From TrEMBL:
One of its GO terms (cellular component) is cytosol. It comes from Heliomicrobium gestii. NCBIfam families: MTH1187 family thiamine-binding protein. It comes from the Bacteria. Pfam families: Thiamine_BP. SUPFAM superfamilies: MTH1187/YkoF-like. This is MTH1187 family thiamine-binding protein.
Amino acid sequence: MPVIAEVTIIPLGTGSPSLSRYVADCHKALQEAEGIRYQLTPMSTVIEGELDLVVDVIRKMHEVPFAAGALRVSTTIRIDDRRDKPLSMEGKVRSVEQKLAE
């Protein structure tokens, strides 16, 4: 069953307050990954897929800032792993929207 993970990768000591280049480079690793879906948000990235695939792609994303010269990277991961029924990004949003409409 798929999991949904939220990941934030922050390179430290880059000499610039802008991180969009690092985010774009991390997303290239996502574009190359098979078997996952993802959504960029203003503060993080949400990834959906089988747990092993999600963890593998997050590891690759974590390495991207180091390859670009960062000497320190802080990565925060939250994983929603529900096993009683299928889980999807859209399903979670739809559930809240339905309750808002009640």
